[in-house]
Write a sequence for this structure.
C-alpha cells in the first residue's frame, strides 16, 4: 500500500508531514498534511497507489526540509467524515460476507490453503484474500467463483506464519498481547545464537512464539548482553583475582561476575570485575 508522490522541481522549503498507518502495528507511510490540523489518532483519507485509503495518524505532525527536485510525499486528502466511516462499516460487512463465501468455496474445491483474512479496498474496487499454504495452490477456479459472486476484482495473497500471526493476534506466554500485532511494525531477523548469548534454554518449545518461529523478543536484549559480555573475561581464560588465580568456567552476564575454578584447590569462586587483578591469555 505504497503512497504515491509528486516531483515538484520548482518548490522548496519546509513541508509539514505526518506518518499514517493502515492497520494496527502496520508500516508507516509519510504524507503531507496539506495544511490540515492533524493529531495522533485522527482518521484520515489519503491517496496511494491503490486509490483512496483510510488510515490513522500514527505520529504527530513534524516539519521537514524538502530540497528542490526531490519527490515530495503525497497529501492527506481530508479528515475522515461520517460518510467515510459509513463506508468503512460497509466494507467490514463485505469482508465478513466474503470470508464466509471463500471458506465455503475452499471446502467445496478441497483446496489445501488456510484463509487468514479478507480486506476490501476503501472504494470496494478490489477484495484481497490473505491465505497460508505449504506450497503453491491453483486457485484460478476459486478466483473466478469469488469474482462472479462478489462483483469486484479479486487478489489472492499468500503470506507466511509470522504475517498470519500478526494479522490474527493473540496472547503470548508472557501474558501480554503479541508484540507483532500491537506495536512491532517490521520483523527483524532472529537466530538461535541470540538465545545462546542470553543463556536461555535451547528447548524449541521455549523459544518458539505463537507463529511457531523464534520469538521476536529474543533480540530485544541481545545487544545489551553482547555489550555486557565484552567486559567479562572469556570462558577458558586464566585470570588473577583477589580470590585466587584460576580458569573462568562460567559467566553471569547480568551480575557482571565470573565463576573461577582456582588452580590451587579446585574451588569455584565468584569474582567481580573489581576482584580481577590481571587477565592472562589461556
Amino acid at each position: 500500500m505504497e503512497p504515491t508522490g509528486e516531483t515538484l522541481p520548482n518548490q522548496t522549503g519546509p513541508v509539514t508531514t505526518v506518518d499514517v498507518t493502515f492497520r494496527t502495528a502496520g508500516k508507516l507511510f509519510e504524507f503531507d498534511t496539506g495544511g490540515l490540523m492533524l493529531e495522533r489518532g485522527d482518521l484520515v483519507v489519503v491517496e496511494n497507489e491503490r486509490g483512496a485509503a483510510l488510515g490513522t495518524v500514527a505520529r504527530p505532525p513534524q516539519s521537514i526540509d524538502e530540497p528542490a527536485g526531490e519527490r515530495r510525499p503525497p497529501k492527506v486528502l481530508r479528515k475522515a467524515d461520517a460518510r467515510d466511516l459509513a463506508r468503512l462499516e460497509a466494507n467490514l460487512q463485505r469482508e465478513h460476507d466474503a470470508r464466509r463465501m471463500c471458506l465455503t468455496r475452499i471446502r467445496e474445491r478441497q483446496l489445501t490453503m488456510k484463509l487468514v483474512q479478507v480486506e476490501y479496498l476503501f472504494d470496494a474496487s478490489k477484495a484481497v484474500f490473505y491465505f497460508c499454504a505449504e506450497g503453491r495452490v491453483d486457485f484460478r477456479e476459486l478466483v473466478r467463483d469469488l469474482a462472479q459472486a462478489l462483483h469486484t476484482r479479486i487478489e489472492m495473497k499468500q503470506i507466511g506464519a509470522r504475517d498470519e500471526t500478526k494479522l490474527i493476534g493473540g496472547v503470548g506466554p508472557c501474558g501480554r498481547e503479541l508484540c507483532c500485532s500491537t506495536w512491532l511494525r517490521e520483523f527483524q531477523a532472529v537466530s538461535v545464537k541470540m538465545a545462546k548469548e542470553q543463556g536461555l534454554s535451547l528447548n524449541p518449545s521455549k523459544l518458539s512464539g505463537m507463529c511457531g518461529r523464534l520469538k521476536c523478543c529474543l533480540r530485544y536484549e541481545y545487544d545489551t548482553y553482547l555489550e555486557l559480555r565484552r567486559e567479562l573475561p572469556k570462558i577458558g581464560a586464566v585470570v588473577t583475582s583477589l580470590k585466587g588465580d584460576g580458569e573462568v568456567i562460567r559467566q553471569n552476564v547480568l551480575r557482571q561476575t565470573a565463576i573461577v575454578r582456582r588452580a590451587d584447590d579446585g574451588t569455584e569462586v565468584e569474582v567481580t570485575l573489581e576482584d580481577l587483578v590481571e587477565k592472562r591469555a589461556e
Q: What stands out?
A: Residues 82-109 form the longest helix (28 residues). DSSP finds seven helices and 15 strands in the chain. The two ends are 56 Å apart (CA to CA). The chain has a mean pLDDT of 90.
